[in-house]
Amino acid sequence: MRERWKAYTLAEAVHAIARKKTIIVCAVSQRHLPFLLNWIASIARHHRHHEVLIIAEDYATLYRVNEKWPGHAVLIPPAPQLQEEHKFGSHFARHTFVYLLGFCDFTSRRPRHLLSILEFGYSVLYNDVDMVWVKDPFPYFKEHYDLYFTDDINVVSLHYRDGLPNICTCMLFVRPTTGGKLVISEWIKQIEAQVWSASNKANDQPAFNRALNKTASSVKGYLLPQEAFPSGGIYFRNASWRTETSGRHAIIHNNYIVGFDNKLKRFREFGLWYVDDTATDVADGLMHLTTMD
């Protein structure tokens, strides 16, 4: 069976998992499996888990997920050979790799995967796994925009440098339109144009913001409301704002904090941890998803 999943392609997976020409994706390594399960559990509360495709960053994740939840994980070769774990939540956390693969090649993997899905003709919602759904976000995507995104700002009053927000690449909804494909293609180009080295640990978010700015006249983009899609810098640190906007939150991002244990602790403190930590194998929670509505 492992050979079956090793040969499983992105095209096969997308065609099998997508519903109504839409798919929800994340990218994750084995180390962050508990956060993956928490994210999926939050989605299952809104009956959207069947649309989830996990892009595995190692074979251990590919096999483990598909053993419990067949068909919901795919690995796009070459597999990053993870050498060390950086602090979860840092800009560099998703860029763990051996040097031989190349900084630029690894970092451009995510937009390349998104572009492939768009080329297949599907809309795609990308989330990092340190997020939780408290409300179905799809009603926010009903208007006919190419791209929906959130601001990574950690204050309520929006004061942008040069009039531009700092768009977070941790949550994007993109339609397979000419504009949607254009901005993702430009994102890849901007990543490739960056200077990469072991000492210059750049990340893909500035590249995305440059791409968005460059394609602004050709792309219909929509900045999602902060009250529904808050950063961790607002939601977890501003109690009065959280109270004032109660009932309006859709996806909460557990950022503005670094470290696996710190993120886990904060999710638990705010009642946003849905994983059964007493289970012998936390991945067993995936098996129940097959029978859920």
From TrEMBL:
Pfam families: Nucleotid_trans (PF03407). It is an enzyme of class 2 (transferase). GO terms for cellular component: Golgi membrane. InterPro entries: Nucl-diP-sugar_transferase, Nucleotide-diphossugar_trans, UDP-D-xylose:L-fucose_XylT. Its EC number is 2.4.2.-. GO terms for biological process: rhamnogalacturonan II biosynthetic process. Keywords: Cell wall biogenesis/degradation, Glycosyltransferase, Golgi apparatus, Signal-anchor, Transferase, Transmembrane. It is found in: Golgi apparatus membrane. Residues 49-267 form the Nucleotide-diphospho-sugar transferase domain. It is a single-pass type II membrane protein. It comes from the Eukaryota. GO terms for molecular function: UDP-xylosyltransferase activity. Its main location: Golgi. Belongs to the glycosyltransferase 77 family. This is Glycosyltransferase.
